[in-house]
Design a protein that fits this description.
α1 (2-12) crosses α2. The chain is built from 4 helices and no strands. 68% of the residues lie in helices and 0% in strands.
C-alpha cells in the first residue's frame, strides 16, 4: 500500500509517470525501507496504464464484494 500511496502522491504532485527511483526517494524521506522486487512489480504492472482507470476498476471490484 505504501508504494501505491507514494506513486499517487507523486502523480498528484505533477509526475505523470513516477519511476522506481522517484518512489524510493519519497519513501526513504519518511524512513521506509523499499523492497525492490515489490516496487519493480508495481511499476511494471502500472506501466502504460491510466491510474484513474485502475482506481475505478478497483473501486468497482471492492463494491461488488461489499468491501466499500
Amino acid at each position: 500500500m505504501r508504494y501505491i500511496a507514494a506513486y499517487l502522491l507523486l502523480q498528484v504532485g505533477g509526475n505523470a509517470s513516477p519511476s522506481a527511483g522517484d518512489i524510493k526517494k519519497v519513501l526513504s524521506a519518511v524512513g521506509i525501507e523499499v523492497d525492490d522486487e515489490r516496487l519493480d512489480k508495481l511499476i511494471s504492472e502500472l506501466s502504460g496504464k491510466n491510474i484513474n482507470d485502475v482506481r475505478y476498476i478497483r473501486c468497482v471490484l471492492f463494491c461488488e464484494r461489499g468491501l466499500i
